[in-house]
UniProtKB/TrEMBL annotation, chain A:
InterPro entries: AAA+_ATPase, ABC_SmlMolc_Importer, ABC_transporter-like_ATP-bd, ABC_transporter-like_CS, ABC_transpr_FbpC, Mo/tungstate-bd_C_term_dom, NA-bd_OB-fold, P-loop_NTPase. One of its GO terms (cellular component) is ATP-binding cassette (ABC) transporter complex. PROSITE patterns: ABC_TRANSPORTER_1, ABC_TRANSPORTER_2. It holds the Pfam family TOBE_2. The keyword NADP does not apply. The keyword Isomerase does not apply. Keywords: ATP-binding, Cell membrane, Ion transport, Iron, Iron transport, Membrane, Nucleotide-binding, Transport. GO terms for molecular function: ABC-type ferric iron transporter activity; ATP binding; ATP hydrolysis activity. PANTHER family: SPERMIDINE/PUTRESCINE IMPORT ATP-BINDING PROTEIN POTA (PTHR42781), SPERMIDINE_PUTRESCINE IMPORT ATP-BINDING PROTEIN POTA (PTHR42781:SF4). This is Unannotated protein. Residues 4-237 form the ABC transporter domain.
Automatic annotation (TrEMBL), chain B:
This is Unannotated protein. InterPro entries: MetI-like (IPR000515), MetI-like_sf (IPR035906). It holds the Pfam family BPD_transp_1. One of its GO terms (biological process) is transmembrane transport. The keyword Cell membrane applies. Coiled coil: none annotated. The keyword Plastid does not apply. Its main location: membrane. The chain crosses the membrane at residues 24-44, 67-91, 103-121, 133-156, 190-211, 231-250, 281-304, 324-348, 360-379, 385-409, 438-459, 492-510. It comes from freshwater metagenome. It is found in: Cell inner membrane. Keywords: Cell inner membrane, Cell membrane, Membrane, Transmembrane, Transmembrane helix, Transport. Residues 68-251, 322-510 form the ABC transmembrane type-1 domain. GO terms for cellular component: plasma membrane.
Length: 356, 524
């Protein structure tokens, strides 16, 4: 169990800068998720932590131990990390027991090895599978054995590279919950790379959001969800509406949602910006009173447990979405009143330009 | 690897960059390269040992030009027809539902076990006055077609069927689909097969000698045996090597420019798509005719001759000769594997040195058996301890077929998913341990295939064996050759039949479809 600290990490691959001055801290014993779209560099970051890639600059520390500085690195086999790649990556020529005991030193007796293998298989719910070959296992079972293999060496840290990506949705939720629970129970610092925001939000103690080769925001799931630093970051953790807004005196804001005659014209540039709103923070009602902001329903996306309404607001025709749970009597074309019941997330136009 | 002490008092290492390779592998590859250079050194030394006028005289005499023209014409005719025939056979076996496609594929590939001189022997014992250029073209087509069929079939099995299906839904008929979709996917493999055929024809000695066609190999043998004029023989050998080297370079450059990549993440299962009666009839006719000429007739003839020879067979000698053949070939294939392992491993790791060594070794492909024999005779005469030993004979086999072995070894290592090596390294395994515990076990089937391929080729090798075998040491090929050369067809039959039977085993094993593609485990 160890903490991870990364400072100014840069990685070049094929003459292209993939990671750019990346900084990240993961506390000891926590389960961290690195979340980002394809091509943002998250797998490169994981491989750099594992020692499979030589960085061009920056430093990586496991606790107090420096494992990488500039282009000097501690080789992977000396880092004591457990690595669980996509689809498990089991050795096809070895049995389940041989896979699990692969990292155990030769000086350990066969009896001790068998004991560790049995303990690990029991831990991942695969007791009795010792003599099976990887070909005989399902995708979920292969992932579990890969985890047992990684844990057998009592690693300081476990790295998981989209371990559930190849599993079907139903199995994925179950396996993901099991694996995360196991890792949290073992107290091993774990870092999982994923592009699935639900995976990250549900399981992680810490989320690091990546864009363009760097970590743009990190924190607890609640912190990054509720206080995103930009619209793009907000979008990576959930649906978001970006509403043009005017900054007023006394930390008040004017938008199409709180002012019937909202108009951006003739405002000083310094007062212009956007407000970020999650769809679940918009409430709708069929009681349209005088002076209320109204909107017309243009589309309803029904998901079973909830529905996402697309609306056009009053005269401004500003688009906004509202997430409504439970049964609803509304139809496309209905006019409803809307209210915003969430925090104000103000992004000034200048900051917006920088962040996007 | 450089190490550096840091303030934290920890030892960090600069990771091995792709392209550097380990020092031991580089050293071993360098040794392989030095061994491969031995025949070239003695060949060049032999060619330039006399006066420069000799080179001019040998190259510009009318007979040499005639030999050059005959060799090129023979190579061109055989390469073109074999390629057309081989691709057609492979296409039929892959695309037409013939009910027993796997068995037919094994039978069509089986002639790879029959060397050209056995074919010539078989057909000469049916048509005693079989002689000349056309006969040589016929025999060499029968001999070399399996090389193309094997390559094309493997490429078709790997081809992206999804692309073909999309093309057909977009309105392309079968011919246009083949031309625009399938052919670009198999072109590189087929062209490598055609190169093998061209090199086979250039280096063939048995068929052209028995059929009286004056090509380079026959002329070199005549000069060597007739006058012991090794200088003139070496000059002609050098020309032959130059032609082969040019062909290899052209093929290699063409291949580099025309890489086609499959876009589907998973290849579609191989399904024979054509069930129409006309397709089946035409495919059966083509395969049937080929099998009659290339397999049934020669084997039947061998059997008949064998039965005729039964009362007079010297079983003791037959057994001894078989053992000698297996021993020398096995020794040669093991040496070839040992030389090929470091080069193939280094080359598979995207090492620049490995790739350079690998490409340099391709030139060994250009060495026909007769030239290898000539060079190693010169080498042996300077190193009497190895001259006329089985070790030198096995070494010649290893050098002759090392390039083939390197190709197989490299491909076997490349097929081991890179991520498994990385996973091993995160599981406390050093690079050497990862190679030993993961890479070599997973590449073993390919390494065995490489060994078998060299073994098969060495068993059939004739011209170098004739020159380098120790006195009194005979192989099945040399015994058969001696009897055939004096038209004692019955006496030759047991040796020829046994040679074909033993060579058929590795030929059959090599042709097995790769089972790993059917494996359900996710290893990449």
């Amino acid at each position: 169990m160890t903490s991870l600290e990364i400072n100014d990490l840069s990685v070049d691959l094929n003459s292209r800068r993939v990671l750019k001055n990346l900084n990240l801290q993961i506390p000891s014993g926590s389960f961290a998720a690195i979340l980002g779209p394809s091509g943002c560099g998250k797998t490169t970051l994981l491989r750099s932590i594992a020692g499979l890639i030589t960085p061009s600059g920056g430093a990586i520390r496991f606790g107090k131990q420096l494992v990488s500085v500039s282009s000097l690195v501690l080789p992977p086999h000396k880092r004591n990390i457990g690595y669980v790649p996509q689809e498990g990556g089991l050795f096809p020529h070895l049995s389940v027991a041989e896979n699990v005991s692969f990292s155990l030193a030769r000086k350990i007796s066969d009896q001790e090895k068998n004991q560790i293998v049995n303990e690990m298989l029991e831990l991942v719910g695969m007791k009795g599978f010792n003599d099976r070959s990887p070909q005989e296992l399902s995708g979920g079972q292969q992932t579990r054995i890969a985890l047992a293999r990684a844990l057998a060496m009592k690693p300081a840290m476990v790295l998981l590279d989209e371990p559930f990506a190849a599993l079907d949705q139903a199995l994925r939720v179950d396996i993901s919950e099991e694996v995360v629970a196991l890792l949290k129970k073992s107290g091993t610092t774990s870092i999982m790379v994923t592009h699935d925001r639900e995976d990250a939000l549900v399981s992680a103690d810490v989320i690091a959001l990546m864009r363009g080769g760097t970590v743009v925001q990190s924190g607890t799931p609640a912190q990054v969800y509720l206080n995103p630093i930009s619209a793009e970051v907000a979008l990576s953790t959930g649906d978001i509406d970006v509403i043009p807004a005017i900054k007023l005196a006394n930390s008040q804001y004017s938008t199409a949602l709180n002012e019937v005659n909202f108009n951006l014209a003739n405002q000083p540039a310094a007062n212009l910006g956007q407000i970020l709103i999650r769809p679940e923070e918009i409430a709708i009602s069929d009681e349209v009173t005088a002076g209320a902001v109204t909107a017309k329903i243009t589309k309803i996306n029904y998901y079973g447990h909830d529905a996402l309404f697309e609306l056009k607001v009053g005269q401004s025709l500003q688009s906004i979405r509202a997430r409504i749970t439970g049964p609803s009597q509304y139809r496309v074309g209905d006019t409803v009143s809307i209210t915003h019941n969430g925090p104000i997330r103000w992004i000034s136009s200048e900051a917006h330009e920088v962040n996007l | 690897m450089k190490t550096k002490n840091l303030d934290e008092n920890l030892h960090l290492e600069s990771i091995e960059q792709p392209g550097s390779g380990s020092k031991l592998l580089v050293l071993l590859s360098f040794f392989a390269l030095i061994f491969a250079a031995i025949p070239f050194f003695y060949l060049i030394k032999g060619a330039f040992s006399g006066e420069l006028d000799l080179i001019k005289t040998v190259l510009l005499r009318e007979k040499s030009l005639e030999i050059f023209a005959t060799t090129i014409a023979l190579m061109s005719c055989v390469s073109v027809v074999s390629t057309l025939l081989g691709v057609s056979l492979a296409w039929c076996l892959h695309n037409v539902n013939l009910r027993s496609n796997s068995l037919l594929a094994a039978l069509v590939i089986l002639p790879i076990a029959i060397p050209s001189y056995v074919y010539t022997y078989s057909w000469m014992s049916i048509i005693p006055n079989l002689q000349g250029f056309a006969a040589a073209v016929f025999i060499l087509i029968l001999t070399t077609t399996p090389y193309i069929t094997l390559a094309a079939l493997a490429a078709l099995r790997r081809s992206d069927r999804a692309q073909l299906e999309v093309a057909q839904t977009l309105g392309l008929n079968k011919w246009r689909s083949f031309y625009f979709i399938t052919w670009p996917q198999i072109r590189n493999t087929v062209s490598a097969g055609t190169l093998l055929v061209a090199l086979y024809v250039l280096s063939d000695f048995g068929a052209v000698s028995l059929l009286g066609v004056d090509t380079f190999t026959r002329a070199i043998e005549n000069l060597y045996r007739g006058s012991f004029d090794r200088g003139a023989a070496a000059i002609l050998a050098l020309v032959l090597v130059a032609i082969s080297a040019i062909l290899i370079t052209i093929e290699s450059n063409t291949r580099q420019r025309s890489k086609v990549i499959s876009t589907s993440s998973k290849l579609m299962p191989s399904i024979a798509e054509s069930n129409s009666g006309r397709s089946r009839f035409l495919a059966s006719l083509l395969i049937g005719l080929y099998l009659i000429f290339a397999l049934i007739t020669p084997l039947l003839q061998l059997l008949l001759r064998f039965i005729s020879a039964l009362p007079s067979i010297d079983y003791g000698n037959l057994f001894r000769t078989a053992l000698s053949t297996i021993f020398a070939s096995l020794l040669g294939s093991i040496i070839a594997l040992l030389l090929a392992l470091p080069v193939g491993l280094l080359s598979s790791q995207a090492s620049k040195i490995g790739s350079l060594t690998d490409k340099s070794l391709l030139i060994v492909h250009a060495l026909p058996g007769i030239v290898m024999g000539l060079s190693l005779v010169a080498f042996g005469s300077e190193l009497p301890i190895v001259y006329q030993t089985v070790a030198l004979l096995a070494f010649s086999y290893a050098l002759l077929f090392m390039a083939k072995a390197v190709g197989f070894v490299r491909t076997s290592f490349l097929r081991v998913p890179k991520n498994l090596m990385e996973i091993a390294s995160t599981l406390n395994q050093s690079k050497a341990q990862s190679i030993r515990r993961v890479m070599i076990p997973l590449a073993t089937p390919g390494l065995l295939t490489a060994t078998l391929l060299v073994f098969l080729s060495a068993m059939k090798e004739l011209p170098a064996t004739l020159m380098l075998r120790p006195t009194g040491f005979e192989t099945l090929a040399t015994e058969m050759w001696s009897a055939t050369a004096i038209l004692q067809f019955n006496e030759a039959a047991p040796y020829a039949l046994l040679l074909v039977l033993i060579a058929a085993i590795p030929a059959f094993l090599i042709n097995r479809p790769d089972k790993s593609e059917e494996s359900g485990v996710n290893i990449s």
